[in-house]
Amino acid sequence: MFRPNLFRYLLLMTLLPAVLHPVQAGNHPQGYWQAPGMHIPHSQNQAPILDYYSGNKPRLIDPGQPFERALAEVAKRSWIRFEFLHWSLDGPDRGAIGAPILNQTDPLQVFDNSNGGIATGVGIIPSINQLGLNDTSGVRGTWGLDLAAADFELEFFGTQDKSDAFGFNDLSAFRVAGTESLGTVDRPNVVIPLLTDGGIADASTANFLVFDSSFSSEIESRLWGAEATLLTKPYIPGNGFQWQWLGGFRYLSYDESFRSTGAFNNGGLQADVVTQISADSTNNLYGPEVGGRAQINNKWFTLSATPRIAFALNNYTGSTFFNGTETGQENDVDFTPIVQVSFKGEVHVSPNLSLYGGYDFMWIYRLTRPFDNIVYDSTPGLGGAFTPDIRQAIDLESFASQGLTFGAVLRY
C-alpha cells in the first residue's frame, strides 16, 4: 500500500511544474521564474526610476519655510539709499599759534631769552586759521524697512581722513651773509610766544620759541557715525503733504590730531634743533534722538525736511605731547546735544529707482579739539632763561559741519 502511493506522489510533483509553467508565463515577462511553492507579489506597472543626475536643482529659498518666508517679506518691504557727501567741517578759529601777548607790533622785534636775550630780528607768529577742513568727501548708506505701524531706517556714514598743512622752508635763505639767523621783513623767522608762569607777557619781554630754519603745522580730522530711527506712518497716506514723528538712537565719532614742527640752526651754523608740539583728541557721542519729517510727495518727485536732535553724552579723550613726551592726558564725559537738519529732493525715475540731491547741516554743542587743548607756557630760569612748559587744559567748544549730498534710492 505504501509503495504505490509514494510512486503517485513523486509523479505528481514531477508533472506539476510543467503544467503550471504556461500559466505563469502568461502573467510574467520572459525569463521570469518563481520557485515552486512560493508566492511573490507582482504588479503590471513598472517600478519608478529615480534619476539623481537629471539636472533638476532644489530651490535656494523655500517660501514654504517660516524663516525663509520672513526673509522674502523683509526684502519686498526694503529699500536702500547710497549717497556721496561733499561737506565742510569747522576749521580752527583760535588765531595765532601760541600764547597771547601784550603790545604786539608789526613787524615784531623778537629777543631770544633762551639764548641770553639776544635779538633775533623780525619774527612772525603763524596763524592756525591757515588750516581748513573744507571740501571733505564721504559716503552715507541707509537701509529702510516698511513695518506694519512704522518705518525703520538704519544709517551709516563716514568722511575721508581730511588733512591740511602749511609750512615755511629755508627761512634763512637770501639773508645777508653773517646775519643769517636774524629775521628780516622779507625773510622773517617764525616764533611761538609763551606764557610766563601762566601769565600774559609784554611782546618786548615775552619768551618765544624761535625757528630760523623751517616751520610747519598740520591737522587731520575724521567724522563718522550711525543712526537707527523709527518714523510713524504718515497721518495722511498717499500723495501730498505728509508728517512723520521720529525717534531713535545715534552714535557719532570725531577724531582729530594737530602737530607743529619747527627747526632752529642759528643761521646754518649748527645742526637743526627740532621742536615738536602735538595733540590728539577723540570724541564719542551717543544718545537718544527725537525729531520729525515733513515731505511733499507725488509720483514724479518728493521733497522732504528732517530736523532732529540727539540728547547725547560725549565720552572724550585728549592728549598733548612735547617733543614726543606726553605732557597731559584726560578722559571725561560731558552732555552734548547734536542738532541736524537734512533737506532732500528726489526725482522718481521709475517705481524702483529715484535720483536725489540734498543738503545737511549739523551742529554739536560741545566737543574737544586738540589745538584748543594746548597751553603754551614757560617757567623762568637762571639769567633770564626759561624752560618751555607745554601742557594740556581741555577746552570744549561748539562744532558744525554742512554740505551737499547726492545719490540714488533703490526700492525692491
Q: Give the SSE string.
A: HHEEEEEEEEEEEEEEHEEE
Strand content is: over 45%
Radius of gyration: 42 Å
Shape: elongated
Strand order of the largest sheet: 1-4-5-9-10-11-12-13-14-17
Count of alpha and pi helical runs: 3
Helical fraction equals: under 10%
Number of strands: 17
Average pLDDT number: 87
State the major sheet: 10 strands, antiparallel, barrel
Low-confidence stretches: 22-26
* SSE-based structural type: mainly beta
* N- and C-termini, Cα separation: 97 Å
Account of the 3D structure:
The chain has helices spanning 2-27, 66-76, 370-373; strands at residues 78-89, 108-112, 118-124, 133-146, 150-159, 162-168, 189-194, 207-211, 214-232, 240-264, 273-297, 301-322, 325-350, 353-368, 374-380, 386-392, 396-411. The model is unreliable at 22-26 (pLDDT under 50). The chain has a 10-stranded antiparallel beta barrel with strand order 1-4-5-9-10-11-12-13-14-17. A 4-stranded mixed β-sheet has the order 2-3-7-8, with no helix packed on it. Strands 15-16 form a two-stranded antiparallel ribbon. β15 (374-380) and β16 (386-392) form a beta hairpin. The protein is 10% helix and 56% strand. It is mostly beta strands and 412 residues long.
Entry keywords:
412 residues; mainly beta; ten-stranded antiparallel β-barrel; 17 strands
Q: How would you summarize the topology of this molecule?
A:
Blueprint: H1 2-27, H2 66-76, E1 78-89, E2 108-112, E3 118-124, E4 133-146, E5 150-159, E6 162-168, E7 189-194, E8 207-211, E9 214-232, E10 240-264, E11 273-297, E12 301-322, E13 325-350, E14 353-368, H3 370-373, E15 374-380, E16 386-392, E17 396-411
Parallel strand pairs: 3-7
Antiparallel strand pairs: 1-4, 1-17, 2-3, 4-5, 5-9, 6-9, 7-8, 9-10, 10-11, 11-12, 12-13, 13-14, 14-17, 15-16
